[in-house]
Amino acid sequence: MRKSVKFVSSEKKREFVSSEEKCEFVSTEKKCERDSNEKKCEFVCSEKKCEHDSNEKKYAINPCSSYKAINEWQRSVRNNKVEGAKCDSFLKEGWYRVTSLAGEEMPTSCPKNGFRCGTIEPVWLNGTFPVSGMTKNLTACSAHFDGDCCKNKYQIQVKNCTGFYVYKLVPTSACPQAYCFGKELPCRPGYASKNGFSPGCKYEPCLTVNHKPLDNWRRSFGNNNTDSTICDSFLDPVWYKPISKAGNGMPTTCPKDGFRCGTIEPVWLNGTLPSTVNTTINATACVSSFSRGCCSPHYEIQIRNCGKFNVYKLASTKACPRGYCFGSEIPCPVGETSDTGYTPGCEFDPCYSSNYHMLSGQVKRSSNYSLTKSDSPIDDSTLTTNWYRIKSDTGNEIVMTKQPINQCGTKHPIWMKGALPVQSDKTVDRKVCMSDVNNFCQVESTIKVRNCSTFNVYFLPQTTTKNAAYCFGTKPYKENSSDKKNSFVESRDIPWIVVVSVLVLIIVLLVAIFIMKQITKKTRLDSKVEEEKPPPYTPIVENGIPHIHHKQVQN
């Protein structure tokens, strides 16, 4: 097939340009004309070769460098799954190179009765491959399910490109028919090879389907807390992958006298971990006991290096409380943090609730509020240097634009230069400016800011200037905004206020009860005295002579 060509002239070289690629036209002479009969020229390019037929004046593209790729392992002759059967009736005629890991060679024996290569009627090569550098015209046959190995014939070409083959294929005349390439298959689940295909597929413990996760940081060598002790006596003898942030490696030093790894008798590795990727070793795991030493009893286990992690085939400990140790890190103490939340690198965490003060209200700190004559300016020269979280109806973030004097409820507003950090920035330093009459940045100082995901906290130093204050929020100030007073209300103080209030109430109730009891007691005594008073004395008169009645005392 002819290609459109043109020459670009120069004194020492000429260039050949086709519709598909560009090659340099080189001659031993200084000039080379296309129609010259006296001189012969050849094409040379840096990456591709162009064929030159000087007699026919025909320039052909080398198929070893100009082809389309086919990368479908389902075309393997060993693939007998035909769901969604392939059909090459819409294949464009042209040169193709097969890049699938199933293999590039077209099978040269009949896949009898079909149902191979991901199709019903597989197409195979009825012939032999050409030697290096040669091109062959060959016949490809479709194998029918009725047993006919050459139901349809197709004339194709195959070229040996010294290292790989290319095929000039034509569309099939029927469906479902498709060309076969290669004979390998992907390794089945749980198995692996160097390229993921046969041959050489072997059981691979590193694959997720072949191991169980162990996610318990309490197995850490650094953990000496044995509450709710770990016991591995019921552990299945299968492969395990420790995934906790405490670490994946099994400790190789004896936790002397036990009481480590969240158990009484920790199990450690008496040896070394495998250092070469994709290697498996047999190892001895020892029980450390406060009474039997560092290796009594012991268990035979296996360890495989999976590159970024190890997996372990563990044996049951057959006794409690015994457990395998993994890793050496422990969670950061309360109020501290690190990139993982575990050691090493734990540091003070300003985002932790007990590590910052809550600055509530403070609505007049807004950049939208101007100081009035009746206001008492907010004064942060009395502020305790510390971390603060802001909570205000007018906004929770520090103001980041220049502020004139008498804004933000103070005489000398303090605003921040730069932008707020993102969470990955952690704690950052930022410059803040205090505004004065003639200068928006009369005094410059440094604060710290930390992005806590859903809020920011600020490390605010006490100001050195009286009636200077940090600006927070940009929303308009409303007269009915809560907490109009300029005072700090710390979240940690609220529980104490509640406790004191409850105690006062209890004391008042106790006093009231005591008083009521005293009143009730007095009332009862008074009532008893009244009841015991004798009636008034009235003498009995008989015949004009008073008669006194004497009470007789019975013996």
UniProtKB/TrEMBL annotation:
The chain crosses the membrane at residues 494-515. Pfam families: D8C_UMOD. The keyword Protease does not apply. InterPro entries: D8C_UMOD/GP2/OIT3-like (IPR057774). Residues 105-180, 249-325, 405-471 form the UMOD/GP2/OIT3-like D8C domain. Keywords: Disulfide bond, Membrane, Signal, Transmembrane, Transmembrane helix. It comes from the Eukaryota. This is UMOD/GP2/OIT3-like D8C domain-containing protein. It comes from Mytilus galloprovincialis.
